[in-house]
Design a protein that fits this description.
By secondary structure, the chain is α+β, with helices and mostly antiparallel strands. It has one domain (about 5-210). About 30% of the residues lie in helices and about 20% in strands. It is built from 7 helices and 11 strands. It has helices at about 10-15, 25-35, 45, 110-120, 145-150, 180-185, 195-210, and strands at about 5, 50-55, 65, 80, 85-90, 95-100, 120-125, 140, 160-165, 175, 190-195. The strands form 3 sheets. The chain has a 7-stranded antiparallel beta sheet with strand order 1-2-10-3-5-6-9. Strands 4-11 form a two-stranded antiparallel sheet. Mean pLDDT is about 90; it is low at about 1-5.
Length: about 210
């Protein structure tokens, strides 16, 4: 299937750095990306143009997306991310919202572990994809909230679970193809408001510890 409206200049440039011997989505490759990308300087305008535009009303469940966001309840929130990278978990069409896992809330070392575990549940949906959508949705996660709660290997999900209103997405949502999930997840693209990354990571570790 032909890809449409795709811009992967930045993500592909980092993917090309990956040594051939660890090109699969292994713990080794994720650790490599974590160490290599953590000090990367990102041009926010370029990040806003990566991936493929969502052409339907909502992104598909199980896909990875990113978008600039202006939280509706920001005055009440202790902190929030203005540029989430999210794996979509549930669509709430009646409320104009969707729930997902914002990977930025995990410190990079835990993000590696969580992403590696999530890769075990990626499903090939190629036969179910409309040709007009290209192949960006062909590989997605097949998980639910109940599934996450029931699996101790996926306990890292708790601080990542967030709800987003589509009316507060300030630019179009963009989908990241599966082959670039590792790069997108490890790039330091979070834009925190209200706290530093280290403060947020400390809270996330506490939440995970309390979950048990």
């Amino acid at each position: 299937m032909e890809k449409k409206n795709v811009n992967l200049t930045l993500l592909e440039s980092f993917s090309d750095l990956l040594p051939e011997e660890i090109e699969e989505k292994t713990l080794q490759s994720l650790e490599w990306f974590r160490s290599e990308l953590q000090a990367t300087y990102l041009n926010q305008d370029k990040m806003n143009e990566e991936g493929e535009l969502v052409i339907q009303a909502y992104p598909f469940i199980g896909s990875m997306v990113m978008f600039p966001y202006d939280a509706k309840t920001k005055k009440k929130l202790p902190y929030w991310d203005r540029f989430p990278v999210v794996i979509v978990l549930e669509i709430e069409e009646d409320y104009g919202a969707f729930q997902g896992l914002n990977l930025h809330y995990l410190p990079p070392i835990l993000r590696v572990r969580f992403l590696y575990e999530l890769f075990q549940y990626v499903h090939d949906f190629s036969d179910e994809i409309n040709e007009d959508m290209g192949n960006v949705y062909s590989k997605r996660l097949r998980i639910t909230y109940d599934f996450l709660k029931a699996n101790s290997n996926l306990k890292y999900f708790k601080p990542c679970l967030k709800r987003y209103l589509t009316s507060h997405v300030t630019r179009r949502i963009r989908v990241i193809p599966y082959e670039h999930w590792d790069v997108a997840a490890m790039l330091p693209s979070a834009r925190w408001t209200g706290a530093t990354g280290n403060q947020i990571y400390k809270d996330s570790r506490r939440i995970i510890r309390d979950v048990g």
